[in-house]
Amino acid sequence: MPSLKNKIVFISGASSGIGMACARSFASEGATLILAARRKEKLEQLALELKETFNTGSRILSFDIQNNHEVKEAFNSLPEDWKSVDILINSAGLAKGMQKLQEGNPDDWDVMINTNIKGLLYLTREVLPYMVKRESGHIINLGSTAGHDVYPSGNVYCATKFAVNAISQSLRIDLLDKSIKVSSVDPGMVETEFSVVRFSGDVDRAKNVYRGVDPLTAEDVADAILYCATRPKHVNINEIILTPVAQAQSNFVVRKPV
Q1: Tell me, what DSSP letter sits at residue 118?
Q2: What is the mean pLDDT of residues 21-42?
Q3: Beta strands of the chain (E only): which ranges?
Q4: Which structural domain, as residue segments, surrounds residue 109?
């Protein structure tokens, strides 16, 4: 397994869920981390934990990924040697609301589109030129089974994840002659803050999403991301789709009686 020691790994959405699990996973392998999210206090706590547990060096970037100016400003604030990112993990993403299209809130649509699609593009646009110049690097995008099959009232969220799927495939072609890897890791049901955010803090409704199912954990997904990042130099994992055993596709879930 290729060593990640001293590799610079940039993780968006690092303040919770899959992004935070990735930070711990990659720190355990000796990587140097750039931790990005809006919640600075959460990032500071995480950086301290990683320092104490793994002696990990890390930098914190607090910005709103929906804002291209903030993304640019944050990335440009890095010392020049930190801009040569080896692995970019585009983990930031969210769902807001779950209504039929005719009942949906356009403000929620904007947040999902601006975060899941435009935010991913903004950040990748900053990091990628340094990879192209070196002809080395790896982009890992966090997709979803919702980028492969839609589900009732998932309309705009599913559209954003179909977009991530398309962007990942297009990037792979764009970078084919630059020796840069591109991977997409697409999980099904993962129990994180995801459903709490989707339902605007309604914890009971969020828990009901996973009723009767043993869902994936953030650590399960981070493990798949780490797998992509640690293949031999000549191997690219284009896509991993992972689900709980009880889930086949977005619309096919078996629930145990509770």
Answers
A1: I
A2: 97
A3: 8-12, 32-37, 58-62, 87-90, 137-142, 180-187, 239-242, 247-249, 252-253
A4: 8-253
| 150 lies in some domain | yes
Tokens (6 digits) for 51: 């320092």
Q: Name the token pair of 255.
A: 């629930």
Q: Look at phi and psi of residue 201 and say left if phi exceeds 0, alpha if psi is from -120 to 50, else beta.
A: left
- With tokens 């060096």, the residue in question is 57
Write out the catalytic residue numbers: 157
Residue 3 lies in a domain: no
Cα of 219 vs its chain's centroid, Å? 13
Average pLDDT over residues 47-70: 97
Q: Would you say residue 49 lies in a domain?
A: yes
- Is 72 inside a domain boundary? yes
**Number of domains making up the chain:** 1
Half-sphere exposure of 40 toward its Cβ, with a 13 Å CA cutoff?
5
Residue 59, strand partner residues: 34
Nearest to 139 by CA among 4, 236, 22: 236
Which residue's entry shows tokens 């994992």? 237
Amino acid 258: pLDDT: 78
pLDDT value, residue 105? 97
Antiparallel, parallel or unpaired: β 252-253 and 87-90: unpaired
pLDDT (tens digit per residue) in 219-250: 999 999 999 999 999 999 999 999 999 999 88
Q: How far apart are CA 136 and CA 130, in angstroms?
A: 9
CATH at residue 149: 3.40.50.720
Do 250 and 213 contact (CB within 8 A), yes or no?
no
